[in-house]
Amino acid sequence: QVTLRESGPALVKPTQTLTLTCTFSGFSLSTSGMCVSWIRQPPGKALEWLALIDWDDDKYYSTSLKTRLTISKDTSKNQVVLTMTNMDPVDTATYYCARHTGDTAMAIDYWGQGTLVTVSS
Amino acid sequence: DIQMTQSPSSLSASVGDRVTITCRASQGISNYLAWFQQKPGKAPKSLIYAASSLQSGVPSKFSGSGSGTDFTLTISSLQPEDFATYYCQQYNSYPQLTFGGGTKVEIK
């Protein structure tokens, strides 16, 4: 059974750095074809892809946010970590992690429940 | 970046209706398109990948079609549990993924 769960602070101040952790089970990120993405959704708005890390430790970022994002993985802990620097109130959103697999042509098949992050002083 | 445009942005339908949602890509994406369902306060759920393949466990009342720039999601007979917002997403430019703006399906 594949599960993903996001964790991190619910509130951050402007200019601070956000660190989110995705803890997953039911698969290994060292298996060929496995990837994990971070995706966010501001309240009442659409989904926005942020970053992806694959089984080979290749990392990819949204072109509009790449200077602020860092994604990493700890295969032994089954975790993927996203950091976002210089947080602003417009970054207030629910942040999701999601799995991609070659079994579904690299499409997302499973999502975490999401974690709401509010940016406010 | 590839832009994804969904239409309509919202629709009202009755239980039992056949519903079709359209997604258009700003350039050709072959069949690298996925559809997701999201209910209020919940995470998205994956419905379809590769434009027309159902994710495991998704009922056959959902179907997808299209290739290139124009795609559709069809719900054959709308049920109360299907009232939600639906998003398309292209992954032709994987891993640079883009989502459509969403289509909210409401009860008439």
List the helices and strands and how they pair.
The complex is a heterodimer of chains A (121) and B (108).
Chain A: E1 3-7, E2 11-12, E3 18-25, E4 35-41, E5 48-54, E6 59-61, E7 69-74, E8 79-84, E9 93-100, E10 108-111, E11 115-119
Parallel strand pairs in A: 2-11
Antiparallel strand pairs in A: 1-3, 3-8, 4-5, 4-9, 5-6, 7-8, 9-10, 9-11
Chain B: E1 4-7, E2 10-13, E3 19-25, E4 33-38, E5 45-49, E6 53-54, E7 62-67, E8 70-75, E9 85-90, E10 98-99, E11 103-107
Parallel strand pairs in B: 2-11
Antiparallel strand pairs in B: 1-3, 3-8, 4-5, 4-9, 5-6, 7-8, 9-10, 9-11
Could you walk me through the main structural features you see in this protein, from its secondary elements to its overall organization?
The complex is a heterodimer of chains A (121) and B (108). Chain A is mainly β and 121 residues long. In chain A, strands 2, 4, 5, 6, 9, 10 and 11 form a seven-stranded mixed beta sheet that branches. Chain A starts with a strand and ends with a strand. Helix content of chain A is 0%, strand content 50%. With 108 residues, chain B is mostly beta strands. In chain B, 0% of the residues lie in helices and 49% in strands. Chain B is built from no helices and eleven strands. In chain B, the strands form two sheets. In chain B, strands 2, 4, 5, 6, 9, 10 and 11 form a seven-stranded mixed beta sheet that branches. In chain B, strands 1-3-8-7 form a four-stranded antiparallel beta sheet, with no helix packed on it. In chain B, a hairpin with a 6-residue loop joins strand 4 and strand 5. In chain B, 34% of the residues are buried. The mean pLDDT of chain B is 96. Classes of the chains: A mainly beta (121), B mainly beta (108).
Helix content of chain B: under 10%
Which residues of chain B sit in consecutive blocks of at least 5 with pLDDT less than 50? Answer: none
Order of helices and strands of chain B: EEEEEEEEEEE
Q: What low-confidence regions of chain A span 5 or more consecutive residues with pLDDT below 50?
A: none
- SS strand fraction of chain A: over 45%
Which of globular, elongated, flat, extended, rod-shaped describes the shape of chain B?
Answer: globular
Could you describe the largest sheet of chain A, including whether it forms a barrel?
7 strands, mixed
Give me the number of helical elements of chain A.
0
So what's the overall shape of chain A?
A: globular
Number of beta strands of chain B: 11
Distance between the first and last residues' Cα of chain A: 40 Å
SS-derived structural category of chain B: mainly beta
What is the CA-CA span between the terminal residues of chain B? 36 Å
- The radius of gyration of chain B is 13 Å
**Helical region count of chain B?**
0
| Oligomeric state of shown chains | heterodimer
Strand content of chain B: over 45%
